[in-house]
Amino acid sequence: MKRRSCKKMFSSNDYFINSWLLSITTTIMIFCNLCDAYKENNGSFPEGFMFGAATSAYQIEGAWNEDGKGENIWDHFIHENPMRIVNNDNADEACDSYHKYKEDVSLAASLGFSVYRISISWTRILPTGYMGTINEVGLKYYEDLIDEIVKHNMKAVVTLYHFDLPQQLQKDFGGWTNPLLIDIFVNYSRIVIERLENVDYWITVNEPRIICNYGYGSGESAPGLKYQEFECTKVVIMSHAAVYRMYKNEFPNRKAKMAINLDCEWFEPKTNSFEDIAAAERILEFQIGIFAHPILKGGWPKVVEDRMEQKRLMENSPVSQLPKWTEYEIEFINGTFDFLGVNHYFTNYAENDFENNVGKSRSEMNAGVLITTDPSWDKNSLGRTVTTWGTRKLFKWLKETYNNPEIFICEYGYSDNGTTLEDNERIRFSRMYLSAFHDAIYKDGVSIFGAMTWSLIDNFEWTSGYSAHFGLFYIDQNDPNKTRIRKKSAHFFKKLAATGRIPEDLHT
Ligand code: NOJ
User: Fold this and answer.
1) Closest CA to 381 of 343, 342, 423
2) pLDDT of res. 43
3) Ligand 1 centroid vs 386 CA: distance in angstroms?
4) Residue 504 a catalytic site member
5) What pLDDT score was predicted for residue 16?
6) Which of 245, 252, 279, 454 is the most buried (most CB within 10 A)?
7) How many angstroms does the Cα of residue 287 sit away from the middle of ligand 1?
C-alpha cells in the first residue's frame, strides 16, 4: 500500500532529482561542518577581527602641568598625600608619552595592530573642566596623536573619560555624584568629538564601577570619598547616555561607533547550593548588570532592586540607597550603545553572605556576597587571579543576558613585577585568554569583533604605581629617557596580528 502511494507520488525522474539534491545537500553540510571544525581547530579568528593594545592618558602621558593642562583628581589625590601610592610613585612624568606619542604609535603599528586605544585627558582641553577658554594646545595634541594613529593604518579607539576628572569639578560640584555633571560632561565631549573627526570607536566612560565603587564608595581611589557609589552610578549612567544622544543628534554623518566600557569579571558559585548560585548571579548583576541593564535592556536589574529593598528592611531604613529612575530616564538611557565595551581580567568564587556583609568591597557588601579565590589558582603580580576558565562562561552570560550584543574587548592582560623581558607568563596567559575568546566566538556564537590587550607599554597602575608591569614594552622608571624595550610577548602579539591565529610557539 505504502509503496504504491510512493510510486504515485514520485516518477523515476523525480526520484533521481531528489536523491541527487539530497546528496548535494549532504555534501555541502559535511563540507560546512568540516569548515567550522577547521576554523575552530586551527585557532584562526574571524576575517577582519581587530587586534590591538590599550592605554590611557593619565597612565602614560606625564606632563601633568604642561601646555595649560589643569589639575585632575588623580594629580590632586597623589600630590596631597604621596603615600597613597605604592613606593610613593606618581604620574607627573609617567611614560612621557605626551612627548613620545609618535614613538608609541609606531610601536603599536610595528606589531601589526589594527587598533590602538587611547584616552583624552579632560583638563588638557578644559583646564577647569567646564568654564573658561578651550585649551587649543590640548585639542591639537589629540588631533595630532589620532592623525598619527591613522597614518600608521590603525583605527583609533578613544575613551572620553578614563578616571581623570578635573579637580575643579570635584571641588565645586562634588564630582560624579552631582547631576550637574551630566551637562558638563556633554559640553566637554561635544568639544572633543567635534574636533576629532578621525576616531573610529568612541568609549564614553571606562569602568564606571571602578569610578563609583572605589572613588566614591570605599575611597581607595581618587577622589577618595565614601558611601556615595549609588549616587555616582546614576550620574555616570546618565552622563554616558546624554553624550550618546548628543553624538547621534548632532553628528549624524559620523561613522564612528560609541559605547560604554564595563569591567566584566566572572563569578562562579563556590558550591552547588541554591544560596551560592544565587550569590553568583547577584554579584554579576551588581557589578555588570547595574550598568549594562539600564543601557541594554532598561532600568535596574530586578535582582539588584530586590536585594536593595531587602537591605533597606534589614537596616530598618526609610529609603533605599538605590536611586529611582523616572520613566523618562529609563527611555532616555535604554539603547544608548552601538556595541558593548568589555574589560576582562579574572574569575573568582561567589559565596552567599546575605545577612552578614563581611565582604570587603562595596559591591560585595551591597550584593551580600563574599568573593573568594582558591590558593591553587594562578595570580598576577597584583594578587588578582588569572583564571581564564571562567572567561568563556562570562561571554556566554553576556550573550544570553543582553541578547547577543556586538562586543569589543577593550582590555585583557597580565601584570608581572618587571624583572624579565622573557615574559613567558604573559604569553602563557594571553594565549589562554585568546583561546577562551576564540571558543566564545566559535563554540558559543558570541559576537566579539576585536580584542585589545592591556597594555602597550609598562605604565602607572594607579595606587600600585609602577610596581605592576602590564606592557608589551618594558620601561624602567629610573631611566630619564623612559626608553621602551621590547619584551618577548611583543613578538607573540606581532605573530598573532600577522596570522590572525594564536601562535603555537613562544619564539618567533
Ligand atoms: C582597567 C583600567 O581601565 C586600567 O586603567 C588599568 O590599568 C587596568 N585595568 C589594569 O588594572
Assistant:
1) 423
2) 77
3) 15
4) no
5) 44
6) 279
7) 16
Report yes or no on 256 lying in a domain.
yes
Structurally, how many domains does the chain consist of? 1
| 306 dihedral zone (left: phi>0; alpha: psi -120 to 50; beta) | alpha
Decide if 136 is catalytic. no
Residue 330, in any domain of the structure: no
Angle between helices 424-442 and 12-41 (to 10 degrees): 160
So what's the pLDDT on residue 4?
A: 35
The C-alpha cell at 13 is: 525522474
- pTM of the predicted structure, to 2 decimals: 0.92
Ligand 1 in reach of 55 Cβ (< 6 A): no
Q: Give the pLDDT score at 30.
A: 41
Residue 452 inside a domain? The answer is: yes
d(CA 244, CA 190): 10
Is residue 351 assigned to a domain? no
pLDDT at residue 132 in the model: 83
The tens digit of pLDDT for each residue in 309-318 reads 999 999 999 9
Residues 6+ apart with CB under 8 A from 79: 90
Which residue minimizes the CA distance to atom 11 of ligand 1? 461
CATH number at residue 169: 3.20.20.80
461: Cβ below 6 Å to ligand 1?
Answer: yes
**What distance in angstroms lies between residue 300's CA and the mean position of ligand 1's atoms?**
26
Q: What backbone phi and psi angles, to 5 degrees, belong to 53?
A: -135, 155
Residue identified by cell 547616555 is: 241
What tens digit of pLDDT does each residue of 350-399 get?
A: 999 988 777 679 999 999 999 999 999 999 999 999 999 999 999 999 99
Q: Which domain holds residue 489?
A: 45-265+404-499
Q: Which residue stretches of the chain have pLDDT < 50? A: 1-17, 20-22, 25-39, 41, 508
Give SS3 for 127: coil
Enter the C-alpha cell of residue 384.
Answer: 588578582
Atom of ligand 1 nearest to the CA of 413: 10
